Amino acid sequence: MNLNFSDIADYWPDILSGFFITIATWMGAVLLGLLLGFFIAVLQLYGGRWVRGVLRVYIEVLRTTPFLIQLFILYYGGPSLGLELSAMSAGVFALAIYGSAYFAEIFRAGFISVSKGQLEAAQCLGFSRLTVVWRVQFPQMLVIITPALINMVIILSKETSILSIVTVPELTAVLTQIGTEQFLYMETTLILCACYLLLVAITQRFGRWAEQRASHYLAR
């Protein structure tokens, strides 16, 4: 089998543009998902009974339905509810909402891993709930949950490929179009795989660095 990458040379600006859009949507979704997931996890621990019930339904619905369906509901179903989003905005928000359910469970597992004795001691010292969460629970659980967080971040990086279905001009959409125009399906697929391998490798490296930093912080 002969591979012809020379015919793709003229498309490198488009490929790089798609790659940057993939990274932008991915990072935006990760940041929003982490913040929302952390907030949900805190509410699950300290919210009232009805709040916990609603959040449990939210998490289970998002975890048991495909991301593609959630994306379609937000992008195509949003206008019927008065919510009109561009393809890019819908993609970022859908990916963030999808990831938030998993991040929330990761954070919740981390919170409950801290012994109750430490929480009771902090309360006896007069710490507020927010202070207990931020100064006692969060630093200790960070080492435990970092591998799970990084794994979820990697999953979200690969889910960005689905955004091409709603016309987000990310890497998959760009390379698919090039492959169709030039009949270079194998070449464009290999480039796509290489780009995602690069993203995953960098994320894994960052994860190991973050885990080491968290371990050193707790050891001090």
Descriptive notes:
The structure is a single chain. This protein has 220 residues and is mainly α. The protein has a single domain (25-219), classed as MetI-like (MetI-like fold), CATH 1.10.3720.10. The protein contains eight helices and no strands. α1 runs antiparallel to α7 (171-182). The termini are far apart. The model has no long low-confidence stretch (mean pLDDT 89).
List the helices and strands and how they pair.
Layout: H1 12-46, H2 49-64, H3 67-77, H4 87-112, H5 116-124, H6 129-159, H7 171-182, H8 185-219
Helix pairs in contact: 1-2, 1-4, 1-6, 1-7, 2-4, 3-4, 4-6, 5-6, 6-8, 7-8
Can you give me a brief rundown of this structure?
80% of the residues lie in helices and 0% in strands. It contains 8 helices and no strands.
User: What's the tally of helices?
Assistant: 8
What distance lies between the first and last C-alpha atoms, to the nearest angstrom?
57 Å
The overall pLDDT average reads 89
Order of helices and strands: HHHHHHHH
- Summed up, the domain count is 1
- CATH topology, by name, is MetI-like fold
Number of strands: 0
| Model regions low in confidence, pLDDT < 50 over at least 5 residues | none
* Structural class determined from secondary elements: mainly alpha
- Gyration radius over CA: 21 Å
**Shape verdict:** flat
CATH class annotation: Mainly Alpha
Going by CATH, what is the homologous superfamily? Answer: MetI-like
Largest sheet: none
Helical percentage? over 70%
CATH-level-2 architecture: Orthogonal Bundle
Beta-strand percentage range? under 5%
